[in-house]
Specification:
Number of helices: 9
CATH superfamily of the largest domain: Medium-chain alcohol dehydrogenases, catalytic domain
Number of strands: 16
Distance between the termini: 21 Å
Strand content: 25-35%
Bound molecules: NADP nicotinamide-adenine-dinucleotide phosphate
Length: 316
């Protein structure tokens, strides 16, 4: 089978032939049809977060994939050969960008009807981050929410799904993005959109009960947008956010660092929202496996609107 392999930090990927893996107990072997790019992929192979996040070379990057079950490992029930599935692979070892990949059933779900492989590859990591950031870190109820929610980075991989998760929960949602993405964010259901490039962007804006930051930057700035007992969570928590969490106990404003925990239950929640037509996955751009470097460059530009996918063939 073919896999995209990195041989060292900062090096270019190479598409090489490798032996197919064998699924262990609790795993299935998936024939990959699409993967998606998340910023962690290129940050990991560049060594941005070393020593917290390392890569063991030769290294296959990527966490999100969609495809068809090729074989079941020992003890696996509930999945069948040929079934369409998707996952955010568990752990920090990457491994998605190959034709055949072993995935644990604890992080695997069947693709809902109507979802294609590109959308299915785009959803897991970004969607679970959005869901957990809003629900677990900001305490947003998933039904009948009365909160005013601000999503910073509302057009990105995580942000565009966060807008839809918060809307599905019935919250009042404001998205922050640049002028060219205002139509996209409104189309996803945002009640209001703030174009951060305008000098008067924040004039007259009422405070928010929940702020989810999908961009990073000054948490002090985000706290100014909060109500007195509001909740703020950052997907890109710097040392200041980590330090600020220590004084949560002294303040009514709560600050949290989002740390994705991949699991099939939460992916199932997102699949159900898709099936109910309350959520869709926007595709920013498509690349072939040979173009992984270009796909990484697109992600690194910080300009993607929705998800960047790698198509491995095999139809929708
Ligand atoms: N903690 C975790 O567990 C976790 C999980 C997933 C992701 N993350 C992190 O979360 C971050 C976002 O991930 P992602 O996949 O959503 O990234 P992404 O798709 O690359 O985000 C790109 C988007 O960010 C927007 N953006 C850039 N600067 C902005 C600004 N100042 N204000 C508002 N929007 C801005 C861009 O819109 P414009 O072009 O309009 O500016 C673009 O649409 C990454 O740093 C990633 O590593 C963390």
């Amino acid at each position: 089978m073919r896999a995209i392999v990195f041989h060292g930090y900062g090096q270019q990927p190479r598409l090489v032939e490798r032996p197919a893996p064998t699924p262990a107990r609790g795993q299935v072997l998936v024939r990959v049809r699409a993967t998606s790019v998340n910023p962690i992929d290129w940050k990991q192979v560049k060594g941005v977060y070393r020593p917290l996040l390392t890569a063991r070379f030769p290294f296959v990057s990527g966490y999100d994939l969609a495809g068809e079950v090729e074989a079941l490992g020992p003890g696996v029930t509930g999945f069948t050969k040929g079934q369409r599935v998707h996952t955010r692979l568990s752990g920090q070892g990457g491994g998605a960008n190959a034709e055949l990949v072993c995935a644990g059933v604890d992080v695997l779900t069947p693709m809902p009807d109507g979802m294609d492989f590109e959308q299915a590859a785009g959803l897991p990591l970004a969607g679970m981050t959005a869901l957990q950031g809003l629900r677990d870190d900001c305490g947003l109820p998933m039904q009948g929410a009365r909160e005013r929610v601000l999503v910073i980075g509302a057009s990105g991989g995580v942000g565009h799904l966060a807008v839809q998760v918060a809307k599905a929960a019935a919250a009042h949602v404001t998205g922050v993005c640049s002028a060219r993405n205002v139509g996209l964010v409104r189309g996803l259901g945002a009640d209001a959109v703030i174009d951060y490039t305008r000098p008067d962007a924040w004039q007259g804006v009422e405070p928010f009960d929940v702020v989810l930051d999908c961009v990073g930057g000054s948490h002090a700035g985000a706290l100014k947008r909060l109500t007195r007992d509001g909740r703020f969570a950052s997907c890109v928590p710097g040392p200041a956010v980590i330090a600020r969490r220590v004084v949560n106990v002294l303040s009514k404003q709560q600050v949290a660092a989002v740390m994705l925990k991949a699991n099939a239950t939460d992916l199932g929640v997102l699949d159900a929202l898709f099936a109910q037509k309350k959520l869709t996955v926007v595709i920013d751009s498509r690349f072939s496996p040979e173009q992984l470097g270009e796909a990484f460059a697109r992600s690194e530009s910080g300009r993607a609107a929705g998800k960047i996918v790698i198509t491995w063939g095999g139809g929708a």
